[in-house]
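User: Show me a protein chain along with its predicted structure.
Assistant: Here is one chain, sequence first, then C-alpha cells.
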Amino acid sequence: MSKARGESKYVAIRKSGIHNRGIFAARDIPEGERVIEYVGDKVTKAESDRRADLQLDKAGKNGDGAVYIFTLNKRYDIDGNVSWNKARLANHSCDPNCETDVIKGHVYLISLREIGKGEEITYNYNFDLEFFEDHPCLCGTEKCVGYIVGDEYWPKLRKAIKKKKAAKRKKAAKGKGGKKGGKAGKKK
C-alpha cells in the first residue's frame, strides 16, 4: 500500500455493475492484504450525527443518499465524504472479498481471499436491521439477501421478510372479496 493516506497501488476507480462507481483491483491482491485505507475527517460522535443528518436531508431533495460515516471507536468516527477517499467507493456485497478492520486508529479494507486483477473490491457494510428496507442490495451474488445488512442479522432479516410477504398475501386475499376459496356476497 502507498504511504499517502487514501492512496493504494491495488485499486482503480471504474464504473460498477453494483452501484454507480466502484474500486477495482488494479493488480492481483493476496489474501490478508491491506488493500486501501478508509480516510476522511476524524469527528466526534455528535458531529458525525450532525453530518449524517445533513446528508440525509440533502438526499431527500437530490436523491443522493450516500453517507460515508465509518465508526472508528466509542468517541470518534471517520467522515469519509471527501474527494481524496477512494475507499468510499467500495460497494457493499453479501459475499464480499474484503472486510474492514481498525488498526491503531486507522480503518483498512483487508482482503479476505486472493482477489484477481479487475475484480471489484467489496465489503459488507454491516448495517443493522432498523431501516433495512431503505437499503436494498444490488450485489447480485448467490448469497445476496436483498438488503444491505450485516450477516449476523440475516436470520432475523429472513424472518422479517417472510412475515412481510405473508402480511402482503393476506391483505391481497382480503382485497379479492373475502375468504380464500369462498364466494363473496350473500346468498339469495
